[in-house]
Design brief:
By secondary structure, the protein is of the alpha+beta class. It has 3 helices and 6 strands.
Amino acid sequence: MSVSSEGEYDVFGDGRVRIIPAPGHTPGHQILFVNLEQTGPIVLSGDLYHYQLSRQKRTVPGYNVDAEATLASMERVEKFLEETGAELWIQHEVGRFEQVAQAPAYNE
């Protein structure tokens, strides 16, 4: 187990799968970073962004617990994406979901 001083959790201790705090939507909201052998680094956004447009415009839904914390999380995640070269997958974005292979066709 590897927990950083910022509350990040490295699941296997090798940096391949990391749970990263991104509070705002809810107090304990998190994103997931995975570095897959065939796909490369990916960040699953959770509810940080609901759609690509929310990301582009940095909009915060009215049902978030803390809009300021959400905006700060967005800023940190964008910096993290830049530093790692990870691709952001926005869970509510149906277009992205339709672009990737689904089980059982997916083989990573």
